[in-house]
Protein 1
Amino acid sequence: MFEKLKSVFSSVILNLSKKEITEKEVDKVLNELMLSLIECDVAYEVAEEIGKRLKNSLIGKKASTYKIKELVQENLRKTLLEIFYEAPKIDIIKRINEKKEKGLPFVILFLGINGTGKTTTLAKLAYLLKKKGFTVVLVCGDTHRAGSIEQLKQHAMKLGLKTIEQRYGADPAAVSRDGVTYAKIHKLDVVLIDSAGRIQTDKNLMEEILKIVRVVSPDLKIFVGDALAGNDAVSQSREFLKYTNFDGVILTKVDADVKGGSAISIAYVTKRPILFIGTGQNYDDLEEFVPEKLVDNILLRE
Ligand code: GDP
């Protein structure tokens, strides 16, 4: 994971470590840093911001009184963590329990482009919640893509969960409403709604999603982004945010992502928390996202 980004940061640390920190030297190294970050799928504006914040934190420091390597490492760490902590924190389990105490199901709508891993991620979260003792129902809200209903039903069968579905072509908002009604009648804790994911600029898709939102008022809207899609994932997240104002992100395929820039970019661009990362194709390959773990993994390599 993140091999490329790791090497970028180590080279910055090395380059500065050899020198006294003057503005000219910082500029030179930061320009190189920016180019390398962009190569690692960090969006241009984000790379620029990292450079700016880092520069501000380094200039004026008396390098000779610090160990330069530690100074740079510490400031990079701070800069990256700041980006992740600009987003509000969401405690899903606490939120589910709060609804449960009111006798109501917690409704989560999954958003994202086809192929990003949305359906698999929904199933992984269902597995995690079931393990924690919650009762869960899955809603086949993608009524467009051939095979999508069967795909979700197959996950449900493996996980021992019920699905709510209608025929292909049915109104996803109506299926979602059925799911929430079912959960209320059967006193279930969580409703997980899958949704269609054609290209993100498809206006009909966004209208369809907004209709689901109007009809079931989800407690949480989660955007699923594919770490391997790099800058595409960033522009998808921007577009979905504009229309749906989603609450949080799950980043998939992090296990196969050598570049590592998408997490930083999506966090910066959307100002939404990354709730989990997908780290494989099995149901338990869903990890809570811990910014410190990612940042330390990138920076603290010798
Ligand atoms: P959807 O079209 O967005 O619903 O995507 P799917 O859930 O069908 O997933 C597409 C492919 O990505 C499948 O082969 C999944 O097994 C795979 N996938 C999903 N999440 C991950 C992940 O975190 N890591 C890896 N390596 N593969 C994943």
Protein 2
Amino acid sequence: MQSASPFTSKIYERIVVLDFGGQYNQLIARCVREAGVLAEILPYDAPLAAIQAGPHRLKGIILTGGPDSVYVEDALNCDPEIFNAGVPVLGICYGMQLMAQLLGGKVGPAEVSEFGHTDIAFAGHRLFAGLSEEETGEQGAGRHVWMNHRDAVLQLPPGFTAIAKTENCPNAAFADENRKLYGLQFHPEVRHSPGGRRILQNFCYEICGCQGDWQMADLSQTLVADIRRQAGGSAVLCGLSGGVDSSVAAALVHKAIGDQLTCVFVDHGLLRKNEAAEVMAFYKDTLGMNIIKVDASERFLGKLRGITEPEAKRKIIGEEFIRVFEEEARKLGGADYLVQGTIYPDVIESGHGKSAVIKSHHNVGGLPLDISFKGLIEPLRSLFKDEVRRLGETLGIPKALVWRQPFPGPGLAIRIMGEITPERLFIVRESDWIFREEVAKAGLAEAVWQYFTVFTGVQTVGVMGDGRTYDFVVALRAVTSSDAMTVEFAELPYALLRKVSQRIINEVAGCNRVVYDITSKPPGTIEWE
Ligand code: XMP
């Protein structure tokens, strides 16, 4: 089964990012894209021929960070030929250490590990050109680069010189100008390195000689061309959840192949209040798509009966989704491709390549292996949510849909701790409706990334009227974020929280206590399961 590489139409300058499994690697690609250069992520061991393949002009290669040490047995290795490919290479953290080791330097445990904000002194170098005073500090001391390493380059490879240092790391960045090879021990891609974006931009423009011939608006054209090429004249099915990602994916595919696309909206019985009706009205009336609604609630809820383990729930839902799609495809006389709105955080958190599995997002890790479609069309696989939203806007999708809060494919199942029962679904659905109403009334709907309620499964003693109650606790979860990879809990006004709490306890039978979740991500995740 193969999925569409998103970038294969017009000829652009291209930077390849080799992924060694760090959690934030996609941010590197994103910074490159934001700098106006097409970025494509490939697995760490992609052979040089694969890196050079395709219509786009390779201008540079970036090696990302990763969780391992370069000197352990089975350490991840890149094709050493990339250093002779005639394009600049930038190694970041693990990538820098790997470059050092492969080219004759020495890497080992640092005397002092560095984590978090670290002062750094930059040499005058093109990579660091144009950093503002705040970013570099008065004497070139950057107070804000973000370090995250136990190992370090202890001895430079022949031909390299150090171009930045910290108190404990004399080789915090290095360069071999003759071969155009560079390394950064710190992470320029994270927001905690305020000069980092500029450094990546300098790599693209000053070092690789890019002109910046790519922009977000080009994305829809390249994706549409790509989808046409992949789908040919085939019939295509799209699973619509009503969420932003599947809507944008569907709109793209609709633009590419029109009526060859049929959308299937599965009501798995785990939707929010009124959601099914709203979604149907929207796609049919506003977007004019072929759309079929399948009421599969009994089937899903039956399979989920007695299941309490979060990963088991996700796998069941993922599998059932595919089975329903397959059945619909058969009814339609067969479909070769299935469109999914998978976005990059889904891929990375489902344990892509060498990253740790955090949870199986239903449209990635939950896929059964015997899926009977010829292939998947996943045009958003390399993008973050806010990039998807911007793409949605360029496609003319109404703001109300593009800026809807994200809703997970497994729906309320992962907001009900333990077994899913009609009573629990009622509590989470009604309390969620109240929370949404009040957030909207407070004018905060767009300021908060996601806000919902969770059925905690915990019962507590309360007093209502003159009597004792022993009912369930509902948790409120509201977070701010720009990409769902890291989040802060939202500092909602107390007056709003009070109102929501009062309404939930008064209006939702079976619930006598409301708590507010004040956990960020990491260490928490947005959803409770
Ligand atoms: P977590 O809980 O991992 O959520 O911090 C990150 C974002 O992903 C959504 N989410 C999912 N979306 N299928 C989806 O389509 C899933 O299985 C899934 N699990 C979490 C979550 O709502 C948040 O926006």
Protein 3
Amino acid sequence: MDFSKIKGKIYFDNKFVDAKNAKIHVLNHSLHFASSVFEGIRVYNTKPLFLIDHLERLRTSAKIMGLKQPKLQNLVKNTNKLIKINKIKDGYVRPILFRSSHSMSPETENCKSILVIAVWKWGTLFSNNNGIKLDISKFPKLNSKIYPIQAKSSGSYQTSVISRINSRKGNYDDCLMLDLNGNIAESSACNIFWIKNSKIYTSKIHSILNGITRKAVIRICKKNKIKCNINDFKLKHLLSAESVFLTGTAAEIQPIRKILNYKFNINNHLIAFLKKEYEKLKTVGLKKTKDI
Ligand code: PMP
């Protein structure tokens, strides 16, 4: 799909414009210096799931990266208006904040922050119901000491992008990324969980994006008294798991069939339970994850 060809309206720098006119100059600061921050939000039955969490994360990312923070109520209003104008029932919202073309160096003093919100109809990320296959990236995930990893910023995705290119070359769907100390971090754009003896495990947040889906899954576990261990774990802990799954706004809860030659059970009852509970959340609409 060529996203530059989507139809309908895009919110572009304070106006709703025809998608074909939502353009920026090639000498845009964020294109050259990866200085944008963005979000991905799913729309289920016209309602954006965890909208406030995503928009608050966008505002936090903007603050961390020195971009001007848009007001939360304007973000909410314009996102909902855009979904309505474009008649989106099930889809994806992509708000992005980037810098204007007033600098071609890391200096940003004269740059304006521009907010764009786009929306499009969308189904599933991985169309594979039989689980997906991961390899292991040769690049470690950035950690919060060397990059503000809690900002969902374009700059943080570079190792994800090249790792994913390598995974696809090897006929894998995605890759597992380790942190600088060899602990499990996450995949190129999802958090990771695994199951052993009916207990669930996932990584700490120092080298991952603390996903909103991850938080929702942890809350589902807590609410249902399922033990969820959050810690630093080495690769061998994960590779000896019964089942492994990814979480993310786009991927939702995605079972993993294989990591390299290690096979996992994609039909684990706990995964099925979490998926069922996650489905229920889709009707929660505008509430924050905290309120679940
Ligand atoms: N990690 C990374 C690197 C991501 O890009 C994403 C997708 N935003 C996630 C984790 C999952 O986050 P969320 O559940 O908030 O979509």
Protein 4
Amino acid sequence: MTARLRLNDGHSIPQIGLGLWQVPAVITAQTVATGLRLGYRLIDGAAVYGNEEGQGQGVRCSEVPRDQIFVTTKIWNDAQGHDTTLRAAEAGLARLGLDYVDLLLIHWPCPARGLYIDTWRALIRLREDGRCRSIGVSNFNAPHLERLIGETGVVPVLNQIEVNPRLQQAELRALHDQLGIVTQSWTPLGQGKSFDAPAIAKAAQRSGKTPAQVILRWHVQIGASVIPRSTREAGLAENLDIFDFALTPEEMADIATLDEGTRCGPDPARFEML
Ligand code: NAD
């Protein structure tokens, strides 16, 4: 059993999960099945990943009961707006072959389009209708979160954002803590760019763990949920095996110095791709 984090709506989410971005559709069901067999209980997908059929198949065909698996999907930018979001969510559930998802996210705010409030109202409706258990956002900056909450009074349970040692997002994470929002880290391994940094390498050597495990453990110790991706069984197992050791306060402080504010992905204030 992996650790779980409480959500502000009474549900909870596994702290570690399996990310499905860039997992080829033909191997997605098998990857999900392997992940579930190894102990993953959170599967992070999205309409735009093009592999929701495999995500759903892996979940539906598993011996792990549905109610023990936490399924996330996301509304892509081209579906933003109230009615288009309702239709996109139904289409996503149909591709997944599921009656509900555990978490539905707005994938990006696309602030220039000005549709994320209408989109959020649709997510509120989908939750009321039982099509998702919890609702949240992804790639929202502080002004987007403040507007969303100010206009609707509904606080997202989670914000899935890019976090890795080179982009630690301390300010946004502090705002999440104040608002009762769970931080979930995407591209948590930061494209391996910190694997050789002395702060990571030293902690890996001391603990007998790999650089990837040290980084994933850092995410856990900053209180985030984390969704690394691997399609190899050994990689999946390695990434899950981070609950039998801890980084020391000194190691955490050393890793804090690696923050450069540099992104692997796009800037949410400007990303509007349809
Ligand atoms: P990641 O940080 O999980 O890294 C994946 C890469 O690292 C792959 O090349 C993989 O082979 C390699 N890797 C995995 N485990 C390793 C290990 N133990 N040692 C060495 N290399 C290892 O990156 P990601 O896939 O970009 O992000 C994770 C998940 O986050 C995605 O799959 C997706 O679900 C989600 N995501 C969300 C958004 C968003 O906008 N909301 C954006 C990007 C990713």
